[in-house]
Design a protein that fits this description.
Blueprint: H1 2-20, E1 28-39, E2 50-53, E3 58-61, E4 67-75, E5 81-85, E6 92-95, E7 106-110
Length: about 110
């Protein structure tokens, strides 16, 4: 009985390893995005703006001064989009290419509805 169970377990593990194949080798890079979110009319900082990266399944919120920063690990070929939403304001979606990364701050204006 033990031998049969051991044999079946070995066959299953071997089969899983054979059929698993090699994982695709995606080129992953880490990107830091930071900026400030403000009202488009009066340039007032917006706190608590939801910033969601759909492709990365990551959500953060802007601080009391409207500032945010986010580290993302993205596939070089992936088209990453960030959505900025706040109650009373029209949501805004920007691609990673639209946002500047690194040491410069990006200012994102949201328009009130």
């Amino acid at each position: 009985m033990k031998f049969t169970l051991s044999f079946i377990l070995c066959v299953l593990l071997f089969s899983a390893r054979v059929y698993a194949g090699e994982p695709s080798k995606a080129i992953v890079k880490t990107v830091m995005i930071k900026g400030k979110i403000q009202d488009s009319k009066n340039n007032e900082s917006l706190a608590g703006v939801k910033i969601e990266c759909a492709g990365c399944q990551k959500v953060i919120y802007s601080d009391l001064d409207g500032n945010f920063f986010m580290y993302l690990q993205v596939d070089a070929k992936q088209d990453v989009k960030l959505e900025f939403t706040q109650v009373g304001y029209a949501s805004k979606t920007l691609s990673l290419q639209d946002l500047s990364s690194g040491s410069t701050n990006t200012v994102i204006d949201l328009e009130s509805e």
